[in-house]
Amino acid sequence: MRNLRGGIMITKNIKLFAVALLVAVGSLSCSSELTDNAAPVELVVTHTAAIGVIDVGPTDDADCEEELGTINMLTVPKNSTVTGPRVQVRVNRYRVSYRRTDGGTIVPPSFVRSIDTLVGPAGSSTVFRLFELGVLNVAPLVSLQPTSGGRDPETLRPFVRMEVILEVFGETLAGDNVYDSTTIPFEFCYGCGCS
Prior knowledge:
mainly beta; 5-stranded mixed beta sheet; 11 strands; 43% strand; disordered N terminus
């Protein structure tokens, strides 16, 4: 088992691949879409990457013990008169989807998870799962295993590059919908170490 500091964990001893990111207080940068304009605040979700290459094979590489990064989630009032509980958002679900950046098209299945966490201007802590358990056993990552040829059949390369798209949904305590997303790039390979 690799325990990656910062709340990210990759479990490989039983061919499971689970990545979780802890939400931390973050920097302000907004990529909002679908935000309800009536809401007095915006939900802001960003990420900070520490590792972008993940070795899907067995490895003793010390770099694989580093944290992959953090997800930063906070609320930003739309004007200075918004204070107190009005700046809090209850995050109730998130969706994870994938987009290839290496020319391939096959990606793991998307999924939606329910959560319940309160976020304010100072941020909040929650764990997000970015991959379903068993993702190493499905396309495209299974193709990187030596027993499956060691190459992605679409690109013929020994790696898979894709972005993880994390979309976070919630509502203010007054019931106004809020939304934001962040995109996290990763490269997956077999026997290449982590960096």
